[in-house]
Amino acid sequence: MSIRVMLVDDQVLLRTGFRMVLAAQPDMDVVAEAGDGAEAIEILRSTAVDVVLMDVRMPRLDGVEATRRICAVPDAPKVLILTTFDLDEYAFSGLKAGASGFMLKDVPPGELLAAIRSVHSGDAVVAPSTTRRLLDRFSPMLPSVGGEPEHKEIERLTEREKEVMLLVAQGLSNGEIAARLVLSEATVKTHVGRILTKLNLRDRVQVVVLAYETGLVRAGGSPS
User: Fold this and answer.
1) CB-CB neighbours of 165 under 10 Å
2) Rg, the chain, Cα only
3) How far apart are alpha carbons 84 and 61 in whole angstroms?
4) For residue range 81-134, what is the model confidence (pLDDT) as tens digits?
5) In Å, how far are 77, 203, 204 from 223, measured between CA atoms?
6) For 128-169, what is each residue's pLDDT tens digit?
7) What is the pTM (predicted TM-score) of this model?
8) CA 189, 191, 194, 195: dihedral to nearest 10 degrees?
9) Backbone angles phi, psi at 155, to 5 degrees
């Protein structure tokens, strides 16, 4: 079954370029396009979509607010934020709003396609080092919690799950976490799944955001 993709960008030429790249893939199908967030939300009411490629700076309704509204709906499609500028504060806001990751618009086609497949499969940390740098840059925007987690559900995690969560928050992949903790990748994936379930999070990006918000990880990606 093809991954159903929606393109949301106010620049028609960019949408055309993305559509050409995606149309050449046997496992992807561009099922809808929109020129702003409001139009995207309206289209999603009647169109089934798996992954939304979302611009951030658009007229009427920007990508951040559109992402927030989309992700608030049950069984919502995954949202992949596309930004023009690295370390854009809009991308940070998009992650907090529920996006599964973000990429720059000038990303090589192969990386974009891999990101769409990754987001669709649920392995949603896209370019973890970039995500980490983004959070480091904007961590002063997060509330100060004195190093004590405010999210009580974290206490439900086992010690091993907390270890895995900290490494996810530092931007490590499953393979890197497995090597660090001397576990199999399958075991790490199981731990990550349990963390998501216990904390009621959508994906790994939300784990990263929560770790920063609760003070489990400080700016710089180190444990608190």
Assistant:
1) 25
2) 17
3) 17
4) 887 765 556 666 777 788 888 887 888 898 889 889 988 887 655 455 555 566
5) 32, 20, 17
6) 555 556 656 655 555 444 444 456 778 889 999 999 998 887
7) 0.71
8) -110
9) -65, -15
Contact 75, 46 (CB under 8 A): no
d(CA 11, CA 33): 11
Strands 51-55 and 28-34: unpaired
CB count within 10 Å of CB 1 equals 6
Amino acid 209 reads V
Q: Are 5 and 30 in contact (CB under 8 A)?
A: yes
Apex CA 189: angle with CA 186 and CA 194, to 5°? 130
* Full DSSP string of 157-205: S-HHHHHHHHHHHTT--HHHHHHHHT--HHHHHHHHHHHHHHHT-SSHH
